């Protein structure tokens, strides 16, 4: 029988406690399958949601105790960047293998961490950093390795998908549903990371990097969130045969990359439109397989912890076989050019808030037409009120022209336009 593998855990919150539960509830199954066990040796966390769940552990006084000689793998499950980065770098210097669920860390300092890991001969597991319980990192870095990946279209934020699905199904308010997502443990510590698209952008930077062997960081991703989306938009989309989803898009064409996160109208029969609640879905289009789509719970304690434990097991197997080698760290990530998004074309949905008076539509249509934007359909809702939503779906138009037209309408037609204008693209 091989010797057991010892782990140290930094951070016992939603994910950390999920890891403890899996390692304890399924200890026999894991031992049977591996031929050895995974022991939680030490934990360190400011607060804990499960301190009394753990048996036979030592509660450390300082995270540095997790670098003790008898610990083989350390888990960074605190989130955030500064302390997590310091901890991970120190752990690598102490020759510890790392498992982390921290997309903010990898989307901003991943390349530093991978090269440090390569220098020190340790392995980094980060499966849980993208799409919770969906093993998409392994699919891209291992199972699709023989493919040239062309593009990725993905729902990678469970909180936003939960909010948009619930708004569609129950018509409860945005805030009520967000609070439920926080209670379920889906949301980030600062939920604006979810609803403003930042969490999705971090995940898309990671996916784009490993899919295109490219240096993509959070700052390279164009981001729009779902904060301004209203029932009106969701209802209008449904009437036209669409669902509204926060999508991450990454593609590579002529050696240029596009990586963006934004809400999209998606045709109802598209597989991504049918993925609801906390579920995530990642459609990968590659040259040999064509489209493959991976669906599963993208947030929450146990699904996320399942990915963390899978990484622990991968590294444990390497340790037992005496060949720990982080193949990802060995890869060369190239600096690539990014597409100018203003040059892109799509159909657009625009919600103007206008004063309900005669001639409003023709004034808006005139400005749109000046920028070569033609209207495919238009609806004005709530006639008779002071300010009403005017919903416009355009034919294909250039992104830069649509933005210029909206700016001109907002600036020069203040007597008819009120509040902010909402812009959503239609997925091709
Ligand atoms: N929740 C989810 O569904 C998913 C989360 N993730 C990622 O997993 C990571 C952990 O998330 P989650 O478990 O939800 O977060 P939680 O906030 O629930 O847990 C973090 C734990 O770490 C502790 N902690 C944070 N900073 C320190 C510190 N400096 N010193 C000591 N203890 C500290 C916290 O204590 P205190 O409360 O006192 O700050 C808390 O107990 C994040 O990177 C997140 O993005 C990834 C996929 C899904
Ligand atoms: N807040 C994130 C958690 C998982 O990464 C989400 O909602 O997807």
Automatic annotation (TrEMBL):
UniProt entry tagged with the keyword Oxidoreductase: yes
Protein name per Swiss-Prot or TrEMBL: Homoserine dehydrogenase
Domain ACT: 349-425
Enzyme Commission number, as recorded: 1.1.1.3
Family the UniProt entry places it in: Belongs to the homoserine dehydrogenase family.
Active site per database record: 203 (proton donor)
Record: residues binding L-homoserine: 188
Pathway connected to this protein: Amino-acid biosynthesis; L-methionine biosynthesis via de novo pathway; L-homoserine from L-aspartate: step 3/3; Amino-acid biosynthesis; L-threonine biosynthesis; L-threonine from L-aspartate: step 3/5
SUPFAM superfamilies: ACT-like (SSF55021), Glyceraldehyde-3-phosphate dehydrogenase-like, C-terminal domain (SSF55347), NAD(P)-binding Rossmann-fold domains (SSF51735)
Record keywords, A-Z: Amino-acid biosynthesis, Methionine biosynthesis, NADP, Oxidoreductase, Threonine biosynthesis
Catalytic activity entry: L-homoserine + NADP(+) = L-aspartate 4-semialdehyde + NADPH + H(+)
Entry superkingdom: Bacteria
């Amino acid at each position: 029988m091989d010797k057991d593998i010892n782990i140290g855990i930094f951070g016992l919150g939603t994910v950390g406690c999920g890891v403890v539960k899996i390692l304890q509830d399924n200890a026999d199954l894991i031992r049977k399958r591996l031929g050895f066990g995974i022991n939680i040796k030490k934990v360190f966390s400011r607060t804990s949601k499960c301190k009394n769940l753990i048996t036979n552990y030592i509660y450390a006084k300082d995270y540095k105790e997790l670098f003790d000689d008898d610990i083989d793998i350390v888990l960074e499950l605190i989130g955030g960047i500064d302390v997590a980065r310091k901890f991970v770098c120190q752990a690598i210097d102490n020759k510890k293998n790392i498992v982390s669920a921290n997309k903010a860390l990898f989307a901003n300092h991943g390349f530093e961490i991978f090269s440090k890991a390569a220098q020190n001969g340790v392995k980094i597991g980060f499966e849980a950093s993208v799409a919770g319980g969906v093993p998409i990192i392994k699919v891209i870095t291992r199972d699709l390795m023989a493919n040239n990946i062309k593009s990725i279209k993905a729902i990678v934020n469970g909180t936003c998908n939960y909010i948009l699905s619930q708004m569609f199904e129950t018509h409860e308010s945005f805030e009520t549903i967000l609070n439920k997502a926080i209670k379920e443990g889906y949301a980030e510590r600062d939920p604006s990371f979810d609803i403003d698209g930042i969490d999705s952008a971090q995940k898309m930077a990671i996916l784009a990097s490993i899919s295109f062997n490219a240096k993509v960081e959070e700052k390279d991703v164009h981001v729009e969130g779902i904060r301004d989306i209203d029932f009106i938009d969701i209802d209008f989309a449904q009437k036209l045969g669409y669902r509204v989803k926060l999508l991450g898009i990454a593609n590579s064409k002529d050696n240029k990359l596009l990586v963006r996160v934004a809400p999209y109208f998606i045709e109802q029969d598209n597989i991504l439109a049918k993925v609801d609640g906390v579920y995530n879905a990642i459609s990968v289009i590659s040259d040999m397989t064509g489209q493959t789509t991976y669906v599963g719970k993208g947030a929450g304690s146990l699904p996320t912890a399942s990915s963390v434990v899978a990484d622990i097991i991968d590294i444990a197997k390497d340790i037992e076989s005496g060949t720990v080698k982080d193949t990802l760290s060995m890869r060369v990530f190239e600096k690539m050019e990014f597409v100018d998004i203003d040059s892109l074309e799509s159909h657009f949905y625009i919600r103007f808030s206008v004063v309900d008076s005669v001639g409003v539509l023709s004034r808006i249509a005139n400005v749109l037409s000046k920028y070569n934007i033609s209207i495919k359909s238009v609806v004005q809702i709530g006639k008779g009120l002071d300010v009403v939503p005017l919903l416009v779906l355009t034919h294909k138009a250039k992104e830069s022209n649509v933005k210029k037209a909206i700016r001109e309408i907002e600036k020069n037609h203040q007597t008819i336009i009120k509040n902010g204008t909402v812009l959503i693209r239609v997925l091709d």
